[in-house]
Specification:
Blueprint: H1 3-22, H2 26-52, H3 59-77, H4 81-103, H5 108-128, H6 130-133, E1 139-140, E2 145-146, E3 149-150, H7 153-175, H8 178-188, H9 190-195, H10 200-226, E4 228-229, H11 236-249, H12 254-270, H13 274-297, H14 303-322, H15 330-344, H16 348-360, E5 393-404, E6 407-418, E7 422-426, H17 433-440, E8 448-453, E9 456-457, H18 463-469, E10 471-473, H19 486-493, H20 502-507, H21 510-529, H22 545-558, E11 563-567, H23 575-590, E12 594-598, H24 602-608, E13 611-616, E14 619-624, H25 626-630, H26 633-645
Helix pairs in contact: 1-7, 2-7, 2-10, 2-11, 2-12, 3-4, 3-5, 3-10, 4-10, 7-10, 8-10, 8-19, 11-12, 11-16, 13-14, 19-21, 19-22, 21-22
The structure holds adenosine-5'-diphosphate and magnesium ion (MG).
Length: 646
Amino acid sequence: MSAAKIISAILAIVLAALLPTIWPNPYYIHLMVVIGIYAILLLGLDIVVGYVGEVSLGHAALFGIGAYTVGVLNWQFGAHFLLTIPASIAVTALFGAILALPALRVNGPYLAMVTLAFGTIIQILINEMTFVTNGPLGLKIRKPVFFDYHVTGTDYYYIVLVALVATLFVVQRILKSHLGRAFEALHDSPIASDCMGVSVYGYKVYAFVLSAAIAGLAGGLFTYSEEYISPNTYNFELTILFLLAVIMGGRKTRSGSVLGAIIIVMLPNVLSDIELFRKIATGIAVVTVAYSVYALATRQRTLKQVALPVLATIALAVSGYMMDNITDHRLTIFGAMILFVVYYLPNGLMGFLRSIVQKYRPQWIHRHEVILEHGDKHHVWSVPDHPVTARGHLLEARNITMQFGGLKALNEVNLDIAKGSVHGLIGPNGSGKSTMMNVLTGIYKPAAGEIEFNRKHITGATPSSIAGEGIARTFQNVQLFGEMTAIENVLVGLHHTFKHSLIDVVFHTPRCKKEKNAAYLRAASLLQFVGLADLANEEARNLPYGKQRLLEIARALALNPSLLLLDEPAAGLTAPDIKELMAMINKVRGHGITVILIEHHMDVVMSICDKVTVLDFGQKIAEGTPAQVQSDEKVIEAYLGGSAAA
Ligand code: ADP
Ligand code: MG
C-alpha cells in the first residue's frame, strides 16, 4: 500500500473513532453500527463478487446463520460474547462450505439459483425449527457484559469499529497475497489458472468459505446490535441490497465496500427526509455540472457524453423541489439511481473516483511498486536445469481418441516424446494439434487412450494436477490474466512455490516474507529471460500481441516444468521477434526442458525440432526427423504442398 493510502486509512479510522463524540445521538450511533456491520459483510462479499466474479444470492442467509448462532448459543446456553462470535464465524464458514462444494460446480445463472434456493431453505429452517431458534417469535439478546460491566450503545460502536478495522486489515492482506492473485486469475482466465496449477474450483470454494466466515462475523455482531432477531430479516431483499452495495460502492476496493454500506444504510433515511434529499440532490447536480464543464473545457469528454448525466442529475434536483412528499417516490428514485450507476459508473463510485485520481496522479507514482534491481548476482534466480539423466520417453500417449459429436478430432493417435527433445507437431488447420495439447493438459478427457508422463498415468487427471506434475503450456489464443500486471501473471505461475498458510498471510510471518521475496526475484528473472523486464508493471492486456505471447512463455516457465507445450508461439510475431523466440526455445532446451512445439512457420520447425509428428484429419500421417518429414509424399500432399502454394 502506498503512503497516501495508509495515511488516509488512519485518518478515516481516527474520524470514525471521534464520531460518537462529535455526534452523540443514539439513533445515529446505532446507524453507524449497522453501517460498520454491513461493511464487514460487504468486504467478504466483494471477494466472491468482485474478485472471483460469481453472483451469490445466499449472503443474507449466511448473515442470518451468523446472527442465529449467537442468538441460539446465548438463548440456550447463556454463552458469552467472546465465545459466540468465534462460533458464529466457524458455523457460518461450515455452512458456506456445505453450500459452496456442490454449488460451485455450476456457474453463472445456475450458481445464482442454487444460492437463492439455499437462502430460502435457511429462512424456512429458522422459522420451522422452533425448538432451536424459537421460530417466528424471534430471540431477545442483551448487549455483552464484561466483568459485570454492561456494554452501552456507544461502547458497542467501538467494538464494531475494531472488528471492521480488523476485517479490513485481514481482507487486504489476503487479497494482496498469492491467494488474492489466485482469485483474480481464475476470474480473468479460468483455463489458464487451471493450467498454472491454480485449481479454479478449489479456489472458488476457498473464496466462498472466507466470504461466508466474514458474513458470519457480521451476522453475530448484528445480533448484539439489534438485541432482537427474527427470521424475516434475512430475506431476499437483503441479499439484493448487499449486491447493490457492492456494485454501487465499487468492486475490488475496500473503500467501495465501506461506501456501499453507507449508501444502503443511509439511503432510506435520505429518501424519507425531503429537506435532506433536496440538499444532497442539489449537491450531486452541482458536482456533476462542474465536472462536466471542466471535462468539456479540457476536451476530455464530448457534449454528447455529458448531456445525459447532467440532465439526469439536474432533473433529480429539480424534482426534489417539485415534490412535497418524498416517501411515495422512494422506489422510483432508488431505481433511477441504480440505473445511473450501472450505466455511467460500471466500476461503482470508488472505481470512478479512482479513475479520476489516476488521471491526475504525478507520473512518477506507479500503481504497483516492484523493485526489480537486485544487485546481488548470487541471488538472481534463473530457469532451473532438468538434467536429462536417463534416455527414453518423457511422455507417451497411446491410442488417443477425442470425439466432438460425430467428429473424431483425434483418431487413435500415438505420441512419444523423447526426454530433452524439441518435438514438432504440425499439420493443416483443424487437424487436431491443439486438441492434442488440450488432451495432454487435462482440459479434454479423451474418449479412449492412455497418457503416461514420467512413468505415471495422467489420463483423466485435472488440469491443475497435471500442471503440478510439471507440464506447462501456452495457448493458441493468448490466455493471460488481463487485469493483472506482467509480473503478477508470472507470479500466478509461481503459485506452487507459496507453501505458507492463511495465518502466515495475515500476520506476514518471516516464512511468508521469505517465500514472497523469492517469488518476486524469480518472476523478475523470468521476465528478464523472455526480454520483458521493462514491462513488469504493465497490465497484461495493454501489452502488444507479440509481447503477450512471450509473457505466456515466462508464466509457463514459472511452473518449473519438465515439459513445455507451445501452441503456435510465433503466430503474430514479427520476423526479428521470431528469431528471438527461436533463440529462447533453444535456451529452454539447454536447461533440459522438453518442448512440444506446434508451429506453422516451417523454417522454425525445420531448424529447431529434433523430431516432427504430422497430423491430418485427426490422424498421424508421418513422423520422423524434419528432413524425413519434409520429403514425405503424404505430408507434401496434405500440408506442405498447400502451405507452399499459399
Ligand atoms: P488445429 O489446432 O490442428 O488447427 P484443433 O485441434 O483446434 O485443430 O481442431 C481439430 C478439430 O476439432 C476441428 O475440426 C475443430 O473444429 C474441432 N474442435 C476442436 N475443439 C472443439 C470443441 N471444443 N468442440 C467441437 N469441436 C472442436
Ligand atoms: Mg490449433
